[in-house]
Each structure stands twice: as C-alpha cells, then as structure tokens.
Amino acid sequence: MIKACRQNKESVLTKVRAGKLDSAALSISSLVDEIILSMHTSGILKFLSTNIQDKRADNTIIPYDLVWASAIAAKMKVKTSLTDIPYAISDHRTLAKLGYTLIETEGKLGAGLMREGSLRALLGKYQAEDLFNGYNSVVQNQVLPHLNLVPNIHILDCTDLEVNFKNKHYEQSGISVSKRTNSPCRGYKLATIRGIVGDTGIIEDIRFGPINVHDMSLSERMIKHSPVFRSGDILINDRGFISRPVMNYLKRKRNVDTYVPLRNNMDAYRLAVECAIQNNDWSKHPNPKRSQQRISLVPHVGPYWESACPSADVDLNACVVWDMENGQYFVFVTTDTSKLARDIIKIYELRPEIEEDYRQLKDFWKIEDFKSTKINMIAFHIVCVLFGYLFFQLYTMLPDGEKLAGKSLPVLLKVYDAKPQSFVVLYTDYEFGVITLLDMMELYSACGQVVREKIRAVMEKI
C-alpha cells in the first residue's frame, strides 16, 4: 500500500527523538532528477498544473504536479510507454523536494507511484487539443514572461511523424509520401515555431495535424496570429512556406519581417540571378565553411513576385548565393529592405537549428514512438516529449545547468555519473523530512540507547 506524506522536517525529528521512525531512504543522484528539481525550484513545473486542467476526482492522493513530473521524466529517460511513468521518479529526495513523497508501507516503491489504469482513465478525459493548447499556454503565458525571455528571431518548420503504414487504426492520421523513403506512409505532422534565445532555442508554438496536410495549411493561422511575434521580429521559413499573402500580412499587419528562399522556377529568382551576374559585384560568403561561395545583393525584387492583389505586395531584397564549385545559384529574400546580402544570409543560416531540434526529438527522444493508436495518447506523448526538451533547454539557461550549455541530453546521460547523495529521507506517520548524513549522525549520537536501536533497525534496511 502506498501512502502520501507531507514535508514536515521538525515534526519528524521530534518523533524520531521520541523513538518513532517508520522508514528511511538514501538519495541517489540523477541528471533527469536534477533537471526536474530545477524546474520545480524555479517555479516552472507548477505552470503545467495551473495551465492544464486537472480532471481527476477531488480525493486523489497523487499531486497533479507529480503526475506531470513523472510523465516528463519518463520521456527524458527515453521511456516511451505509459507503464514506465509510475517508475520514472524513484529518488526519495526528488519526490520530497516536489512537496510530497510517497512510500509503501512495506518500505519500497516497487509498485510505482500511480497505477497505469488510473493514468489511462485520466488521459481519456482530455482531447488532443487540450494538451497541445496546454503546451502553448505554459510556454507563452508563463515560461517566457517568468524568465523574461523575449526571442526576436523565430524559425518556422514542420516535421512528419510516421507510424506503421499498415495499421489503419491510428486516429486522425493521414497518408502521404515519405520524405525518408519516397514510398507511401501514414502519420501526422507537427508544425513548430522556435524562438532563438542566446545559444539555444525554445519551441514556443505548435500545431498538429495529419501528415497529408500541406505545411502552410497547417501553419498559416499560427503564423498570422501567434502571440510570440512582436513588432520588429524576424521569421525564418523554408521553401515549404513560400506565400506572398502571408509575407504581406506579417509585414503590414504585425511588422514582422520574413526570410525565405525562392524556388528556381519563380520569376523573382530568375531576375535576381540575372541581375547579380550582370552587376558582377560579389563578396565572400560570411560563413568560413562556404569559402567556395559568393554573395550579391539585388534590391527591390518585390514587383517580380506578385500576389493576387499586387497593390498589397511589400517590397523585397534578395541575396543571391553563387556556388562557384558547381555553378549553382540560390536566392534568399526578405521583407526588410534595409538588409544587405551579408545580413540576409547570416540570418537565414540560423534555420538549421530547428532541423537539429527535430533530429534530436526523433533520434533520441523518440517522439514518433507511439504506444497507442488513440489520438489523446499520441498527443500526451508528444507534449511530454516537448516539455522534456523544453525543461532541458531551460536548465542550460539557469545557474544550475548553465555549465551544460551547448551540449545535448543524450550525450550528457551517457557520461553522467550517478552517485549517492549526502541526504537521508526520514518517514514517520504521514510526514517526512530530508536531512544530511551529518545531521543523521548527530541525531543518532544525541538519542538514547533505545531510540538508537530503533533508528539502526530502520537504517539497516536501506
């Protein structure tokens, strides 16, 4: 039987001195536990329970914060099954720091913190949109203002999440052609906006749909109305988001400048390349890794890319990139006509950062590893993975983890050396207290022989 205990160190110490001690546990360090604790200490973990409604009965024992913390910790430990969640946090000090801890009356947490059946019942009460909207609300309304983060460069992209093509039971999935294998595939599509913060970034807005929906169709409403954009911001797109009306809207309505590459079958592309060749005014590419490339500015190419309403079209500046090694040309345009070629290409070269996000989310975080065909379970898995990724990114920005900035969680977990910590968690009745080993030694020496024997009997079981 598991019972929930509240933290009350002084009460526990008083009871221990009187000879009352039900159980004790040592703390074992874990990088994931440290990240979860950092999110709790900084107040970020609490935002999940205040922005995503707790739909359980009022008499539940497990704190809602702990449900989310366990689910996210499971994803950070690459445990993708729902059955892994009850066991994701087993360190007593971590549980204690979250404000509660749980203990089996038999003395171990072997049965897990919660039942898988109760988790399934809880998730059955949510629609997928509840969870995706919850993620957006936590990040936009709580995390960014709480940490005073105001990204002004954003990267838009979509990624396909493929499932078993032969399984027709994946709810709300679509059928398309796989970008990996060029064969028919089944699955979903995730659209994200990534805000650049220093040397890292945060996925700050998401949308979700079937894999067969076009990138722009899935993203257009998010692009136009996302609260993460402020006047003067920059949005970097790839070719899948080429839309003159959307660029016009962002520039005129929200004063957000867009950076996007042109397709080689567009009039504006052909004009920009012809002008660059004719002007013959080339400069070195600002990226030392691209020493074989040259760049040239071609201003005012907007009239050569018209929408259905040309009077609403904003002007564009183009950066033409000439790859001298193979004779190819690439054209990147922006609605910010004050930018020179060097500025345009340096800003656009930030875009691969979101591709690295997707690579990690798929290869390490297993965001495509769905254990259920139910859409709400799929949404829960995706959102927990994204929260885990968010927590790690935030951790590297905070004093606790800033020494890890620039490193990835998969690499860190391989080299992390888990060691016993100098903390002991003591349990009496429905209370617990966390003390250091030194405090435990002093407590033991200050007690009478009868109490010492009781403490020894419990401690020998650790």
Supply database-style keywords.
462 residues; alpha+beta; ten-stranded mixed sheet; five-stranded mixed sheet; elongated
Q: How many distinct helices?
A: 16
Which structural category do the helix and sheet elements fall into? alpha+beta
Instruction: Provide the residue-averaged pLDDT.
Output: 88
Rg over CA atoms, rounded to whole Å, is 27 Å
Largest sheet descriptor: 10 strands, mixed
How much of the residues is beta strand, in percent?
A: 15-25%
Q: In one word, what is the shape?
A: elongated
Kindly report how far apart the N and C termini lie. 19 Å
Report the helical percentage: 25-40%
Count the strands? Answer: 15
Low-pLDDT segments: 107-112
Protein name: Transposase
Pfam families: DDE_Tnp_1
Organism: Pseudoflavonifractor gallinarum
Keywords: Membrane, Transmembrane, Transmembrane helix
What would you say this structure looks like, in words?
A hairpin with a 2-residue loop joins β6 (184-197) and β7. With 462 residues, the chain is α+β, with helices and mostly antiparallel strands. Among the domains are: 2-128 and 373-415, no CATH class; 258-343, no CATH class. The model is unreliable at 107-112 (pLDDT under 50). 38% of the residues lie in helices and 22% in strands. α4 packs across α13 (375-395). The longest helix is centred in the C-terminal third of the chain and has 21 residues, at 375-395. The strands form 2 sheets. Strands 4, 5, 6, 7, 8, 9, 10, 11, 12 and 13 form a 10-stranded mixed sheet that branches. It has a 5-stranded mixed sheet with strand order 2-14-15-1-3. Residues 155-389 form the Transposase IS4-like domain. This is Transposase. Keywords: Membrane, Transmembrane, Transmembrane helix. The chain crosses the membrane at residues 378-398. It comes from Pseudoflavonifractor gallinarum.
